[in-house]
Predict the structure of Arginine--tRNA ligase.
Amino acid sequence: MTSPTQSQHLFADVLSRVHAVCAALGGEGVLPAGLDLSRVVVEPPRDATHGDMATNAAMVLAKDAKAKPRELADKIADKLRADPIVERVDVAGPGFINLTLKSSAWFGALRSVLEQGEGYGRSGIGAAEKVNVEYVSANPTGPMHVGHCRGAVFGDALASLLSFAGYDVTKEYYINDAGAQVDVLARSAFLRYREALGETIGEIPEGLYPGDYLVPVGKALASEYGDKLTQQSEAEWLPVVRAKAISMMMEMIKGDLAALNIRHDVFFSERSLNENGNDRVGATIAELRAKGDVYEGRLPPPKGAPVEDYEDREQTLFRATAFGDDVDRPLKKSDGSYTYFASDIAYHKTKFDRGFLNMVDVWGADHGGYIKRVQAAIKAVTNDKATLDVKIVQLVKLLRNGEPVKMSKRSGDFVTLREVVDEVGSDAVRFMMLFRKNDAVLDFDLAKVIEQSKDNAVFYVQYGHARGYSIFKNARETVPSLPEDATARVAFLRDAKI
């Protein structure tokens, strides 16, 4: 076998070598010829003392070979031992294969990193296939809070990785501007409007948004309309105030996201689904009804745990059970208006209509029970042509020296994302939001992330970078003729642990 391909990631290179060994065994009759090798992987071993890499080839191919995994592993291992980049091969347990590579393989990988710089690891695996990644999608009722932060950073990182892997990624934000919460926003902003006109409004009534962030909205309305809106009925002023408040809230949210270097490509309004004579929700339901996937009926009483949507009445139902869900789902409320789920079906249908067969949604932990029904709806409305992958992000517990952080005066009931970024910096926030697996609860201690100690992962990484940069700077000043990085004599690293 040849030396490592310098343009290829080392793990991918070793995987191709394992595939070549399997193909060779196919030629010898040990494995069936033309066997599907898509389940074969090469990854770091669970225990670093077992080697550099491990492969499950024998475990997943043993059945096709009609052999015991351990016996097949020994045959694969024998061939891998002949590879020029392999130092050692061990078979462990029932048939796992652990590999230790020669230093020259790592030196070759290091040279690739030096040559390719920030492009190292980029691939064309996505083949420019379109992917829609929807994340954040916070209600436009106020500034972003720290609870939104994790989904924002995770979604942005995921979109960047998909793009780096060759996918054509669209980053999308779904503006929830059609529910009752935006009418509450409008009424809250109207109070601030009256305040801007000189009226004493006193304590904000319960049920309205109390945060000071609505003061600028009130002032903007007063500047634009004077006292004109006070002379109108709520039915007249509410849509005007609502539109202004949503617009200003979205500008605030975009600013909050920009502070974390997050910028979406598309902002899709839920209200647009049923504006200007359009009834995309109704049209989508009609389309599903024509295929027999929507019907009028009654849901049976729930067994065991209560079903949140259950109402004992004749109603319009989506046949979700035909597509993998546990129960059929209502599409209309008792007052005849569409459920949020119905709007979600229509919204995801627009993604399909825009050419997206691959959709990724990043949701908060409280939406976990919503996954099956939306995936079922997408199967139905796209005739099983599109898929939805939902990533759940767990809660963030904001602490300072181990104690919960108090609420924000600006927001009224939560700590804003901007306050956190201003205190610890965007890099620290992004780093910590990705420090734990997305589906595990994260403790984010504001004091710890700015602490200059090895116990602070953010500082440790920044310190390592600064030290490395200092070494390079000193080397270039001391030895002006120092070769370029890509021609460095990396073999001098032989005695170092890589």
In short: Residues 1-7 have pLDDT under 50 and may be disordered.
